[in-house]
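User: I need a structural model of U3 small nucleolar RNA-interacting protein 2 from Pachyramphus minor for a docking pre-check later this week. Nothing fancy, just the predicted structure tokens so I can convert them on my end. Input:
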Amino acid sequence: RRREAAAAEEEGEETPQEKKLRLAKQYLEELRQLVLGGTWAWPAPYGPSAHGAVLGYSQAWGKGRGSPAHIPLSLQVQPPDPASIRVLRGHQLPVTCLVISPDDRFIFSASKDGSLIKCKWEVDSGKRLCVVPGGKKGTEERHMGHASHILCMAISSDGKYLATGDRNKLIMIWDTTTCKRLHIFTGHRDAVSGLSFRKGTHQLYSASHDRCVKVWNVAENAYVETLFGHQDVITGLDSLSRECCVTAGGRDGTVRLWKIPEETQLVFSGHQGSIDCIQLINEEHMVSGADDGSLALWGLTKKKPLALARQAHGVQDAQGLEQPYWISAVAALRNSDLLATGSHSASVKLWKCGEGFRKLEHLCDIPLVGFVNSLKFSSSGDFLVAGIGQEHRLGRWWRIKEAKNSVCIIPLKQRATASGPESPGSS
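Assistant: Understood. Predicted structure tokens for U3 small nucleolar RNA-interacting protein 2:
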């Protein structure tokens, strides 16, 4: 009786926030057991996308330690029918970067165009809703758009702000609803090559070819600090909920984890070539790709890759020499085991993180001709978006004439789904 009384007293002292967290953990554990047991009879209130429901809970709980390492959503994916891939045309030059709005309704894309600098697309209809024209270098203050190639972009987790970075050292902040420019950040001394909003905040991280990372407060239009460490141009950047970010260091051969409050960094090495792209899978793991054709899977507690797929996209015959296809883009479906990689090998590849993130398993190829310069999964996991160009986003080493400069929406079919209306990207 004394134990029961103590338990009742302890429960009485539980705050509403603690109760919500306890119930969320309890429900997520039930969902995890359903996933691991192969039971896909999902209750109707959670919508048509089984893995969308799981991801919502895993992302809500994934901020804290002790949450599930990942949800094995790769079990559901089937190779999509090439005829079901939708191609959105409008950019005249190669698409360099893109993002998807948090509600999966819109896609923002940018290219090497001098006129169609930034486009906003509606996922359902494929219509182009907004175009921001560019101008000549030095005229950025007098017109809306960029005056040079946009290399990167990021969208805040509340969908309010869009950030774009260009070769002319500028970062522009946009209102996603009206496509109006709100502010210009200056301070980098070379091309801005990576942008990411910290999840749940308006804190923006930027990376540049000037080898440094800068931190900004977008809501207050303020510069915060600069971090140094890379020995070569930074080619990519990503972040999640924690106050830290990860970067790819080009030819210095390192991936770095930056701990912002401590102003410290962890250095990871494992690629032989220039590391061109990087993305976090969850708060503990990340994936990167390099121009030596290798794909690396990392844990943030180990300095070497947990898994490494060499020549992930095969090899090409370049002037009589066999060279691996460069990995030009990587994407991870957050808090899952599903990855995607792009190159100019005429296909996008889907991968599974197996055996507790210690193995990379190839799942299937999706035919796409051209340089895959950007890849993003929808937050629900129902579709994958690829930015395609005739040239690599960073240069003009090769040109694939038969490629179409476009945005491609690739539906990801599920082996089993609950009854209900189709998801936005399933047509």
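Before docking, keep this in mind: Residues 135 and 147 are 5 Å apart (CA to CA).
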